[in-house]
Amino acid sequence: MPPPNDPNMIKAIRTLYKSNPIAKALFDDFSKRARSESVHTADRILEIVQQAGVSTRYWAIMRFLKMELAPTGCCRFIIGRRGQDTRVTWSFDIVDLGKSAIGEDVLIEASAKNETSANGKSDDAHVMMAVSFPLRPLDSVDAVIQIPRNLSQSEAQRLADFIKTLPVV
Where do the domains of the chain lie, and which CATH numbers do they carry? Predict the structure, then answer.
């Protein structure tokens, strides 16, 4: 990760902004936000870009994120595995990145973990993990569920209550 306000990174994102319609749509969106986010899925980025009127496809977003945006150092591209979505984690505040990309002189700050996203939820709420429970150990039968990494006590209780409602044969 380059240091904040790295001139090479700023030059790279400004060049992308000028030459790539996906980058332009994405950074325009970021520059207008009030709050930063630390993670975006490839699907969400596709949605943002298409809402800006850019006709593109998922594979083009993937190529852009991996081959063009991540090499600038402003984010880390992560391929989805084990039920996780393909995503980017931002190294810097996305509002600052957006403003810098469009040409404003701003102090680019490091991305803060656990910032509130635009929908009012913590970004960590979207980070899921698979949990396995040996339901029938002698038969090697495991029950596997996907839950948020930051599962609260009340959510765990709701899940337990739901499991109690499952039909028993």
Answer: 7-124 (1.10.10), 127-164 (no CATH)
